[in-house]
Amino acid sequence: MSITSKGQGRTAFAYLTPALLVLGGLLAYPIYQLVLISLYDYGQEQVSGGAPLVFLGLGNYQKLLADQQFWGVLGQTVAFAAVCVVGTLLVGAFLAILATRVRTWVRMTLFLAALGAWSTPAVAGSTIWLFLFDANFGFVNEVLGIQGFSWTFDKWTAFGLVAAQVIWCSFPFVMVTLYAGIKAIPSEVLEAAALDGASAFRTAWSVTLPLLRPIVLVVTIQSIIWDFKIFTQIYVMTNGGGIAGRNLVLNVYAYQQAFAASEYGLGATIGVVMTALLLVITLFYLRALRRSGEAL
User: Fold this and answer.
1) Contact residues for 89 (Cβ-Cβ < 8 A; gap 6+)
2) CA gap 256, 210 in Å, rounded
């Protein structure tokens, strides 16, 4: 590495230092408190000062790992996030390709509609979807002719409804990102593939997709991070996790343990486990960002 590049690196780090200090203060202390609480028997009595703190060490972690419900909720969270990620990528990719092949006014209308979905607050969007799929007065049931059918009563239809809402508010990010990536592909490359006699599918599979692979990887990992920590949609649309907790995901499960059951130590333990899992995903995300930056 040359002296000039070292000097530029120091200058860049100096500019970033204030932001890093702020982020460190905002993130490090809450994470420290979360880990600290997870090591104690910390319930309502301890919060009110009626009982002393009892240090458990890894006791909460052992209790959590021995809890069959935790493993069931973890499996549901992974499966739910996978469905949301795959659905978001498929819808976003389809609409990105569509946006490259329609007229300008159609593309602008599509982008404005996507912006509306993207900017809608999670609570408002979830409430609107509940109203649309209401068992007695919902527009969807009237169109389908199945009035009285509850979309949130059954475990799987409830998960499907929430997944559809999550995909609806997540696909704009994928669509716009992939659209920008497609437009950045040199036209000469696509023209060369056409001159070689490649079909549209062959061109998309052998030319476009490899060039978009870094971007696809980034939006995939970003979607995994978002969908793995879903809380609002599940909590609002299933009324706190569904009947008998059938629609719980990790974030809602942690909330129930901490605030409904007043097991703050156990709730903090679930939070630490989620943070560790998301940290691993984030490391993959950062590697993907660096690789995509090098490739592009």
Assistant:
1) 174, 216, 219, 220, 223
2) 44
Which tokens sit at 268? 């903090």
Please check whether residue 281 is in contact with residue 228, taking contact to mean a CB–CB distance below 8 angstroms.
yes
Q: What mean pLDDT, rounded, does the chain reach?
A: 85
**What amino acid occupies position 215?**
I
* pLDDT of 2 above 60: no
Mean pLDDT of the region 267-288: 85
Nearest to 132 by CA among 121, 123, 142: 142
- Per-residue burial over 244-276, b if 16 or more Cβ lie within 10 Å, else e, is eebbbbbbbbbbbbbeeebbbbbbbbbbbbbbe
Query: Which residues partner with 54 through β-bridges?
Result: 41
Cα 100-101-105 angle, rounded to 5 deg: 85
| 91/98 Cα distance (integer angstroms) | 10
CA distance 290 to 218: 10
Helices (H), the chain: 3-38, 44-48, 59-65, 68-99, 104-119, 122-132, 139-144, 155-184, 187-195, 200-203, 209-228, 232-237, 250-255, 264-295
Task: Give the distance between the most distant pair of CA atoms in the chain.
Answer: 80
pLDDT of residue 296: 42
Please answer whether residues 127 and 236 qualify as being in contact, where contact means their C-beta atoms are separated by less than 8 angstroms: yes
Q: How far apart are CA 44 and CA 25, in angstroms?
A: 28
Q: Is 2 exposed, middle or buried (0-12, 13-18, 19+ CB in 10 A)?
A: exposed
What pLDDT shows up at residue 289?
Answer: 66
Q: How many residues does the chain have?
A: 296
The rounded distance, in Å, linking the Cα atoms of 222 and 85 is 9
